[in-house]
Here is the input.
Amino acid sequence: MKQDKTPLILGILAAVLLMVYFLPLQIYVKHILILTLLYAFLGTGWNLMCGYAGRLSLGHAAFVAVGAYTSLLLFKNFHLTPWIGMLVGGVFAVLVMLLIAYPSFRFGVKGPYFTLGSIALAEIIHNLLIYFRDHTGGSLGMSLPYEPTSLAMFQFDGKEPYYLVILAFWLIAVFITWKMERTRYYLEAIREDDDAAAALGISVNRNLIIAACISAFLVAIGGTFYIQYYRYIDPYSIAGFTLSLNMALVVVIGGSGTILGPTIGAFLLIPLTEVLRMTLGASLPGLHLFLYGILLILCIIFLPKGIASLPGKIRAKKAKKEAQTNQGAEGVL
Amino acid sequence: MAEKILVVDNISKRFGGLQATNEVSFEVYKNEILGIIGPNGAGKSTLFNLITGFYFIDSGAITYKGERIDKLTPDQICHKGITRTFQVARPFGGLTVFDNILVACLPKARRVADARAQVSEVLKIVSLDKKAKTLGADLTTLERKRLELGKALATNPEVLLLDEVMTGLKPHEMDEMMELIKELKKTKTIVVVEHVMRVIMNISDRIIVLDHGQKIAEGQPKEIAENPTVIEAYLGRGAK
Amino acid sequence: MDLVLQIIVSGILLGGIYALISIGLNIIFGVIKIVNLAHGDFLMMAMYACFFLFTLKGVDPFVAIFLIFPGFVLLGVFIFRVIIKPLLGSAETEVNTIIATAGLGFVLQNLALMLWKSDIRAMETSLTGQSYEFAGIMLSSGRTWAFIVCIVVAIVLYYVLMYTKIGNHIRAVSQDSDAATLMGINVDKIYTLTFAIGIGVVGVAGAILAPTYNVYPTIGLYFNTMAFIIVVLGGLGSFTGALIGGLIIGLVESFAGVMASAELAQVFSLLIFLIILFVRPEGIMGKGARV
Here is the structure.
């Protein structure tokens, strides 16, 4: 059974990633690893609401932005340690999520309408960030005031500590997903048929809201990591459609509705994107994204359920075949 | 001796210009099988939707074990002990048969492991134990109906509302299903909506007849079969 | 009072143009039931096509329309066959088509970036900078003609949808594709045709817009958002809804642009959009979008 193997796989994966920390790697490889784990983390958060519950959000960057700007502003104006700022950002993100999720679920906004609504939300946040330029720096963005390596202030001069932090975050996110077994089942049922789920005693709204809030909280924390690592954000990159799309992509390509799907997707897509960018980005602007877009389209056509779902797909096909041969044996009743 | 477990008191429901349910009242006694019949469009499925909270009644009251339930949501009503099946089976297509039943067992189980332990039992009752790994979407119509019943049973209801479970079954499959329902009667109360007359007549302790949203008759199967109002509703005036 | 009238008229002109952009989207969304996130990028491509036809070959934009429309229709057929069709009919169709069209958007934007760089292109036609005066109100020439062409195209499309056999088939498929199949309609062909028409129409819209807007690779994003807001506001699948929705958004933008900043105008439109989603997702003219 799926569930029995997960802690084992997770443990091995975590151990391997931890050992990587000790390897002497090039700077840009470390950067790719950090970015990959960041997306694995963000994707896992996205997956909780969108993969399991099937409500496709392409505006999750809104929550990343809330987290990032909250902790940044608290640090800049009050010198509040980003570790706490991160939690505050998470709470704000949950509040924003509740503001939109509660009416959405209550009014039964589903499918493409939900997706469009999520895009609209991200755009609203994007525009508000630009509008309040006196506080947020507008479209020019804001930098993180530099401080030499300090654990308390979540800033490090080298890449290695960031790697450990994001590794820990990722581990926590995946662990939470794994632990929420009951909710996962409920969400899947809700995704398939929410009336049928309700008829069996599952509270649709409550489960959706729980998933949505945890999702928002996690990606907001990712936002704080983003600003602490990159030391600079602007509305376009942190509240933009590209970030939202990438969060969705790593999950869909990796296999949505699975515990490790987002991680697999991140490990496939992010190194690829970065390598493309580094080799081709300089020569002809846009080439790497052009190729990336084509690869994406190909991926989605040939692997419509993502990669992590492959074993499940094979199992289901086998079961179908078995059932058919059995039926043949029983003859026509 | 018989205890009233579900009381439907003068309920009505209107959808725009259509009075789907019109002052319907009846009682259901513990451990009986109550049959509901009526021509197409009589409002039978609407009745189930009203009782289980998918629609809210405009007026009247629905009482379950002495408690008003007409303002509760479907999941709350399921927790109280009433579970319904859907006329067109609604399996969770992307989940395996096993997981379909598991999901149904979960809300009332204290731990996931407990729920898991109950699944194979239910699968056996509805003869789907060999199909545990098949996806819901890959089942045949008959298997879907069995799964539908299985999911309902998995919630361990006191009152089971079956909406046309016989549709599409072959005669001997119907016999099996009838036996199963009669077996379930020992521990549960069952309300059955059906079109297949021989089934309803065979298994029901009592029958109520709906037509155009109203109850037009109530009684023992034999009385109903000979009731002129009922015959008229089905066959039209002048048919005797 | 004059100012208000001016704003209203500008809003109407703008609205007509927005409406045309969203009609193409509406058809695709309403019939095939998929979200085409690359819609704005097709618009962008058409704008570039018009620009180059004019600056390199001296083709007048209004003539260019007759070249661009068939070209984009063929493009639509190609895109549908290659990208969309393989994704239809599965449980993940919705997610996958959204992602595939998003990827397509990337491809188009960056293709434009690679080929034509990020410089802003502006066309200088006989209409540039001209305005007509009517009862004391100034109407930008370019926008006025664009508006007229939009109305004409809309009327033609309306006629086709309502009074031709093909239009009938399209509407049937949009209401119930299974029933349509049972009636002998080749749903696959209708889908292809619908998608192609949708892309063709947005191509026309691009050609109309090019003379009056600056062209750059990412201009599609802005119009995309607008188009979706209008489609939902007006009502999915409703032709007149797209027109009404376009007019409303045009007016809102016109007023908001004068009274507040550009960003707030957008926020305002987006908030309206969200409220519509909650309260009346079927839009002003649509039916039954709520689950």
